[in-house]
Amino acid sequence: MKVLLLLVTALLLRSAVRAELPVNEKVLKAFNETFRDATQVNWYEAKNLYIVHFIKDAIRYNVTYDLEGKLLVSRRYYQEDRLPAQVLLKVKAHFNGKAITGVTEIFDENGLFYYIALEDQKNIWNVKLSQSEVVEVKKLRKV
Known about the structure:
This protein is α+β, with helices and mostly antiparallel strands. The protein folds into two domains: 1-74, Roll (Nuclear Transport Factor 2, Chain: A); 79-143, Nuclear Transport Factor 2, Chain: A (Roll). 27% of the residues lie in helices and 46% in strands. It has three helices and eight strands; from the N terminus they run H-H-E-E-E-E-H-E-E-E-E. The chain has helices spanning 2-20, 25-34, 85-94; strands at residues 39-46, 49-56, 59-66, 71-78, 99-108, 111-119, 123-129, 134-141. It has an eight-stranded antiparallel β-sheet, with helices on one face. The longest helix has 19 residues, at 2-20. 13% of the residues are buried. Residues 1-19 have low confidence and may be disordered.
């Protein structure tokens, strides 16, 4: 009897949480098919968009969907060890001896870009890279 009561309670809680999600079925289906093992999932609704923040494979994500479940923008936040080898080699060639302190990977209608923060003892660089070239660099002096 206790097991049955626990099972019913769990099912009711699951359906109550599901009812509170501000997400339509198309978006939820697209998300679940793409990001199966996501944890710490938090949904937000904006004008004609759904935004979801979550963690998958120890990487923080911020993904935006339209109302039809089409992925519009994906942002991933991670460290140097997760950069693809060709991007890491390009950064190290341009910024030899600089420490990578963070990476933001953005995929949208313009393609895939990496925003990489680097630093040494005197300076901080914010670099924007496509998969093939360094697009933009901003250098700041530490005080």
